[in-house]
Amino acid sequence: MEVTRARDPADQNSGRADSVGKEGRSAGLSSAGFQPPRQPGHPGPVIALLNQKGGAGKTTLATHLAGELALQGQAVTLLDADPQGSALDWAHRRLQSGGERLYGVFGLARDSLHREVPAIARQMDCVIIDGPPRVAALARSALLAADLVLIPVQPSAYDVWATQEMVALITEARVFRPQLRAAFVINRRVVGTVIGREARSALADQPFPTLRADIAQRIAFADCVAAGKLACEVSAKGAAAREIAALAQAVREML
């Protein structure tokens, strides 16, 4: 997606959705309660979901966090910086199924991300970046663009050990962006087990905090991926929707 395509987030209320290739595709998701973008010159926060280990559930958290903030009246853009384009695929499923448009989803899987995001953030209340696994150059660019990094971690020893690479990248980025904040999110915790608490204890030695809002492994999230929906649309009072609302609140407290 060329720099000129970055103007599209400001046009979210137009209702337009298009497809321009895997790297530059865009899809819109809006609702009647969508608020106009903030005035230029007052950038909204940029939140990047990153983990060098695949399968941590970044895309599910990114699409749901963006949706929760949008439903609260914020102008939100989700940037899919993963070459696999999973967030874009989710957005297109939603459009194809007739889902309402909540926020814009745009492909920007390039290591120039940090140079292009500021112009987008100046027009939005919040920018969410769904980062790539195993692509250090893209991850570094996302870190240089972000104000807050969320690191989804599955509650297993392997996943906790794998956080070291992400911690090292964030530490490196703080040389250039000392104000960069970061936090772990325990994701896909199996309900009824103690392994989530054990993961929280294991992460206590890390230099970043762990958000108090855990996200459990739930069928509702898998159903949302297949249907292009949000958990609150499947069951407004369900456990999955409550967990996402708690995550959004924890993120707001960090910003």
Give the overall form: globular
Give the beta-strand count: 7
* Rounded radius of gyration (Å): 17 Å
Overall average pLDDT: 85
Strand order of the largest sheet: 1-4-3-5-2-6-7
**Percent of residues in β-strands:** 5-15%
The first-level CATH class is given as: Alpha Beta
Separation of the first and last Cα atoms: 28 Å
Largest sheet: 7 strands, mixed
Report on the structure:
- The protein is of the alpha/beta class and 255 residues long.
- Strand 6, helix 5 and strand 7 form a beta-alpha-beta unit.
- The N terminus is likely disordered.
In short:
This protein has 255 residues and is an alpha/beta fold.
What is the secondary structure topology, with strand pairs?
Elements: E1 26-30, E2 46-49, H1 58-71, E3 76-80, H2 86-96, E4 101-107, H3 113-121, E5 126-130, H4 136-145, E6 148-153, H5 157-173, E7 181-186, H6 195-203, H7 219-227, H8 231-234, H9 239-254
Parallel strand pairs: 2-5, 2-6, 3-4, 3-5, 6-7
Antiparallel strand pairs: 1-4
Helix pairs in contact: 1-9, 3-4
